[in-house]
Amino acid sequence: MRLQKYMADCGVASRRACEQIIQDGRVTVNGIPAVLGMSVEDGDDVRLDGKRLTPQEKRVVLMLYKPRGVVSTSSDEAGRKTVQAFVSELPYRLYNVGRLDLNSEGLLLLTNDGALANLLMHPRYGVNKTYRVVCDGTLSASEIATLTNGVQLEDGLTAPARVTNIRRSTTGGTAFSITIHEGRNRQSRRMLEASGHRTLRLKREAYGNLKLGDLRPGEWRYLSEEEIEGLRACCAGAGS
Length: 240
Hints:
This protein folds into two domains: about 50 residues, Structural Genomics Hypothetical 15.5 Kd Protein In mrcA-pckA Intergenic Region, Chain A (Roll), CATH 3.10.290.10; about 180 residues, Pseudouridine synthase. It is built from six helices and 15 strands.
């Protein structure tokens, strides 16, 4: 592995910045002053200003299809199944990015990158989240307008939502997609309750630039570097 990549993996700086640090003569490998283009192997003693460098734990982000009836916590006092059961064999300590309630399903992100998780959950950035919802009864035009413009809840008026793909469901209720960007607890369900409707099914289908795609309940996959950078871009765009 190139020395500058090893240094970047240790969290020193970007590869380009690490190249300059090497050229400045601040790095040694096995006691020998390092030069640009040098390679290192496992076990090599790499030091910056005399302090040994060790690689950080690999940062990973994965997308899980959380099934209904599963808890979005690391443990549960009632003994209910948690999302950790689906990733327990992975060699990482993973945390949820937000959560989906017990009876909701769909796209849930897990990561060991605390900085990224905090960025995605920060109220300032408000990353878009899209849900496929089925509620009882028929949504009237005025109720759709209320969902779109904002619903008064006990913790304040919600931000405008986007409601699309409205149709009659096979159960006799109304099916539609709703996109929100706030992180309030059970927000979509509460918005419908305030409009006089009960949520029969709620499935998160998209989070920022990500779509659930072909994943089935309980399945997961790693995000690519491009997808992770896309998430960061969503935060930058929402905060601008």
